[in-house]
Amino acid sequence: RVGVSLWPQSCDIAPDWLWPLPQSFTSSTERYPLNPKAFYFGYGRQSAAQQDCSVLDAAFKRYFSLIFPDYTSGSVSAGQASLNAETVWGALRGLETFSQLVYQDDFGTYFVNKTEIDDFPRFQFRGILLDTSRHYLPVQAILKTLDAMAYSKFNVFHWHIVDDPSFPYQSRTFPDLSSTGAFHPMTHIYTQSDVRRVISHARLWGIRVLPEFDSPGHTQSWGKGQSDLLTPCYRGSTPSGTFGPVNPVLPSTYQFMARLFKEVSSVFPDSYIHLGGDEVDFSCWKSNPDVRAFMQKMGFGGDFTKLEAFYMEKIVNITSALKKTSIVWQDVFDYHERIPKDTVLHIWKGTPASYKEELSRMTKAGMRVLLAAPWYINHIAYGQDWRNYYTVQPLNFSGTEEQKKLVIGGEVCMWGEYVDATNLTPRLWPRASAAAERLWSDEKQTSSVDEAFPRLQDFRCKLVRRGIRAEPLHVGHCKHEYQGV
Amino acid sequence: RVGVSLWPQSCDIAPDWLWPLPQSFTSSTERYPLNPKAFYFGYGRQSAAQQDCSVLDAAFKRYFSLIFPDYTSGSVSAGQASLNAETVWGALRGLETFSQLVYQDDFGTYFVNKTEIDDFPRFQFRGILLDTSRHYLPVQAILKTLDAMAYSKFNVFHWHIVDDPSFPYQSRTFPDLSSTGAFHPMTHIYTQSDVRRVISHARLWGIRVLPEFDSPGHTQSWGKGQSDLLTPCYRGSTPSGTFGPVNPVLPSTYQFMARLFKEVSSVFPDSYIHLGGDEVDFSCWKSNPDVRAFMQKMGFGGDFTKLEAFYMEKIVNITSALKKTSIVWQDVFDYHERIPKDTVLHIWKGTPASYKEELSRMTKAGMRVLLAAPWYINHIAYGQDWRNYYTVQPLNFSGTEEQKKLVIGGEVCMWGEYVDATNLTPRLWPRASAAAERLWSDEKQTSSVDEAFPRLQDFRCKLVRRGIRAEPLHVGHCKHEYQGV
């Protein structure tokens, strides 16, 4: 006796449901049972990578467990699948795709259907920002997020590691920054070994770690451990006791920054570094007589955007000398269009109408850009807001083909005002996966949000099966529910 | 070297921060160390309850672990605290309050300040609704929610156990209801022993379990396992193959309901039972020739609200005969003001302006009411929406003192469209705690939402310390963060 359900069921699994959608694939109903006892991954004879490639050796082990979470003995099968990739990182993505192709019948036997897939990412930069300053995230929570990121083919972890509320990064050069600037000097910090652990875990999943040390604004917590770094604010002719952004007029500021970024450059091996530069409040600078004198000397008049530009140029030069490419929030360009051409601009402001204008203007100036504005996923709303993240069209702005190529990718931002380890995972997944498909897949093949819905529901159940506490999209169930509490 | 923080810190704990606020208390800075090795709870000589009172014996054990989560040896202390309560349930609430009074200094020693508290609840009914039909919630998730409810002094678990999408209750009398109506007949059901476990766990926490079997609408899943129960819808003169609400014209319907509610009455010992009665869609009834003939015979004309009233009256009579008091959603009264006087009306609709009018109208008719409308906590919004739940004034409607007394309490509703075990806890806590204080504490003493904020932040950290994944209210941290992933 089988009931026909009137309700969307999450467990109507189609064997070729993949997320994000590959660029092209053909599958057939010809299915092959997989015997976990006989199954193995191996390197092809022609493969440049061979045994001892640490990334793939680790990935083989990992994906075996992901593919066969509870294997019982299956029937014996012959045959093989082959995966060709130009890079090790491409091979990782292919393993993820393969793992999603394997399914179980009601008796628990694993199957994979005959399938051919040709795939590549639409954008090279597919990032997620986590904010570990407004709330501290335990290292375990970050590692688990990296796992889930790989399942959606994200490849950049943008670590917004410090900000106004706290400075959890334990610096070798300036240990006072965290011992006085962290929420707690022992329990709410990232030690050097924590950072190494995050970077090496991320590497094995094919994820780059992009650190952000945002200045001159968003630095209140820095001031606790580094005297004379922040600008003293004045009330009339006397210091008020409060502090503003980094003090841009003292040579000691740049000496400090050079030493800090030298350390950061060696701790974080990625070729990119994020310098922030957003939301600088000028009122404190305006109140300070030394800053005003400096403005006059430099001929900036009353235009404090010139002072910020002056400051950012110095910081960009410091990181250039360290052979790093800078990423800055859009404010920096908005203030000062003369900025080194290899700097990447990060768009975070505005409505769809206004960020499209920014995309147009910035790429026209020949700058590379990264789009975050439509994916501020910390903003929540009742219902299926993933649809808004899915329907973003990052290249739908007025510009030439050359301009479009300057959009290097996009980023999902999970700012931390209302998020810590208690709610991070269900708030991030599967909503971020909607953006992941937009950044990976062909837009024409993924234009229907309604067609995507059951596939995303299925993918969400796959995440739950893998131990990721991804929240439901709507009424329904998964064959294997989250059992924790 | 101590930094002065510019940011709200969750760990500035005041020793007399309690949630919800007691009706009256005085505390002093005179503090007493507690030695876990020597600490014990005992029954007073005059106490009517003595050893072997299962509820209090269990509570003593439980609260010992809650109060001393990681005790090291402390200094020896003498003295004692006494707790006088009229009922066992009152003693449970007092234990909760006492447990919130104990704090640790930096060396880990436990202290309690000299404090006198006189306390009682503002409303007798302080409920939380969980919906286990739109998503199945594992028993563990329900039990954990009961624990957290007790921490906020909630005392009713309204179990919206079945609805359109699924029928997870495994009935002894009608096993087909769940074997065909549940999402899965084995893994997504509540067996009789599951239900007993929930009820007995709830009892030990002083929480009543109010079951809801909502009809005649919201019953799609019932139809799978019980033929002829739902109304066949017609397209013109032929059945369309779809079904509407329960069929109110067949005697077999009432025979089925009498048997079902007889079982439910014995399985759920509470004196209240929730009969639903909301959102009945009349279009299917209208399409059905048998229903139309019945309407004519009964003289209802074209007024289908009379048919619903007829049906509900029959169901209320069934449960009255079983010695249960009925609760129904407001729709039933809106349609048909002649309803047994001891029925409780549950207000779920409308804006603050409109539910106040309902409160006025219903209490004027002498009916007891329960307010849920302002606490639909499944609706989420960015930011501190707990403030909206906190500022509700349940008695701020036009009516006499007698009318106000008819408001028996309120209920936080967590409907299940977008909620399952992956996100239930952080979505419920501490947002529901805001409503809990409104239902427990004196409104005059708790009129400032800004004053409540740091105390609620502290309470949220207490929940986290107790293993409840309660989400953060704003930037900050807890001394003991959630470490899971």
Structural summary, described in words:
Chain A has 485 residues and is α/β, with parallel strands linked by helices. Chain A has helices at residues 54-67, 88-101, 139-151, 176-181, 192-204, 222-225, 251-267, 283-287, 289-298, 304-321, 331-335, 352-364, 386-390, 401-405, 424-428, 431-440, 449-465; strands at residues 24-34, 103-104, 110-118, 125-131, 156-160, 208-212, 230-235, 238-246, 272-276, 325-329, 344-347, 368-371, 407-414. An eight-stranded parallel sheet of chain A has the order 6-5-4-13-12-11-10-9. In chain A, strand 7 (230-235) and strand 8 form a beta hairpin. The radius of gyration of chain A is 25 Å and the shape is elongated. At the A-B interface, helix 3 and helix 15 of A face helix 3, helix 4, helix 6 and helix 15 of B.
Largest contact between chains: A-B, 59 and 60 residues
Instruction: Specify the number of helices of chain A.
Output: 17
The biggest sheet of chain A, with number of strands, parallel, antiparallel or mixed sense and barrel status, is:
8 strands, parallel
> Could you tell me the radius of gyration of chain A in angstroms?
25 Å
Total count of strands of chain A: 13
Q: What is the element string of chain A, with H for helices and E for strands?
A: EHHEEEHEHHEHEEHEHHHEHEHEHHEHHH
